[in-house]
């Protein structure tokens, strides 16, 4: 599939690229993940990569950064776009992302039109909190004929993280659920990116994949997530694992545990698989370590980013 990611903040664009790569590849390596910085000099290499077939993997994930030929310009830009489209259509096996740090996209560009019809476009906004909140309010009222409460706006804003396409998709889903959107509606229907990421971090630690845990934390750092929030949510994961272990030991079924803890059955089953990877004593020790780290960060005794990364490096599940 072809993707276009654009917006004024390069860091936000890169986070979106990383997320797409993880969604499309079972494992990211040098053979299936290829990145280009676009220039006229390497255009032939880019076109070749778009149409090439990997002998080592099912498909490649190709990123073309600074794809400035999609900005408003002359006919030459459109010829480049058409060459890419023709090559892709001959062998549409790879995922290709075109990313650029700009809001001045030429919507008449051939590649823009093609991606809009056959792929996915992500426009990432760069507006103030107040402007973003006002935009969300007006979008629900004018475009969806719905009302949305202020706490729901703030939570939705946090969960979509400035991604306009994601926001519009989630807003459509919420409008089908209710005509007066509450905070509980947002919590029920919209995925919490921080909760999802801390879940990935938790599973990486228990699976002894520290490299992935640290990479996940650095992704969160790019997204300006504070370590104290990550600590709190990671601690909740360990507490939940402890609760599932205890209730299972009491003879409760997965369905009964889910009802008792108010969590989906698939999450109960995941925790059941995870509980064999760590002892009860280690869970309690880890919770104490996280509490101690939280206190040190809030007291200014340790740098918050260094402290949390050090915790990840020291962690052992036994």
Provide structural commentary.
With 318 residues, the chain is α/β, with parallel strands linked by helices. The protein folds into three domains: 2-123, Rossmann fold (3-Layer(aba) Sandwich); 129-189, Helicase, Ruva Protein, domain 3 (Orthogonal Bundle); 195-314, Zinc Finger, Delta Prime, domain 3 (Up-down Bundle). Helix content is 61%, strand content 10%. The strands form two sheets. A five-stranded parallel β-sheet has the order 2-3-4-1-5, with helices on both faces. The protein has a two-stranded parallel sheet with strand order 6-7. Helix 9 packs antiparallel against helix 10.
H/E series, N to C? EHEHEHEHEHEHHEHHHHHHHH
How does the overall form come out from the CA principal axes? Answer: globular
Radius of gyration: 23 Å
CATH class of the largest domain: Alpha Beta
Task: Give the name of the CATH architecture of the largest domain.
Answer: 3-Layer(aba) Sandwich
User: Main beta sheet: strand number and arrangement?
Assistant: 5 strands, parallel
Q: How many β-strands, per DSSP?
A: 7
Strand order of the largest sheet: 2-3-4-1-5
Count of DSSP H/I helices:
15
Query: What is the CATH topology assignment of the largest domain?
Result: Rossmann fold
The end-to-end span amounts to: 42 Å
- Indicate the low-confidence ranges by residue numbers: none
């Amino acid at each position: 599939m072809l993707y276009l990611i654009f917006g004024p903040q390069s860091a936000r664009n890169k986070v979106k690229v990383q997320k797409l790569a993880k969604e499309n590849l079972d494992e990211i390596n040098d053979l299936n993940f290829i990145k280009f910085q676009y220039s006229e000099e390497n255009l032939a290499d880019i076109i070749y990569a778009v149409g090439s077939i990997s002998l080592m993997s099912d498909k490649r994930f190709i990123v073309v950064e600074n794809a400035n030929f999609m900005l408003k310009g002359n006919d030459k830009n459109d010829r480049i776009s058409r060459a890419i489209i023709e090559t892709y259509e001959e062998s549409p096996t790879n995922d290709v992302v075109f990313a650029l740090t700009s809001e001045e996209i030429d919507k008449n560009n051939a590649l823009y039109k093609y991606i809009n019809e056959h792929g996915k476009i992500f426009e990432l906004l760069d507006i103030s909190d107040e402007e973003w909140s006002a935009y969300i309010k007006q979008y629900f009222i004018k475009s969806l004929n719905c009302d949305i409460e202020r706490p729901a706006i703030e939570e939705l804003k946090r969960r979509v993280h400035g991604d306009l396409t994601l926001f519009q998709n989630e807003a459509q889903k919420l409008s089908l659920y209710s005509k007066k959107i509450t905070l509980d509606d947002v919590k029920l229907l919209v995925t919490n990116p921080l909760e999802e990421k801390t879940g990935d971090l938790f599973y990486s630690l228990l699976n002894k994949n520290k490299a992935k845990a640290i990479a996940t934390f650095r992704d969160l750092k790019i997204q300006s997530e504070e370590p104290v929030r990550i600590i709190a949510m990671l601690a909740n994961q360990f507490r939940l694992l402890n609760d599932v272990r205890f209730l299972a030991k009491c003879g409760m079924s997965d369905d009964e545990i889910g009802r008792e803890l108010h969590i989906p059955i698939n999450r109960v089953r995941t925790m059941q698989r995870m509980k064999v990877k760590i002892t009860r004593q280690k869970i309690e020790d880890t919770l104490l370590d996280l509490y101690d780290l939280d206190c040190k960060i809030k007291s200014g005794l340790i740098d918050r980013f260094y402290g949390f990364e050090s915790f990840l490096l020291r962690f052992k599940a036994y």
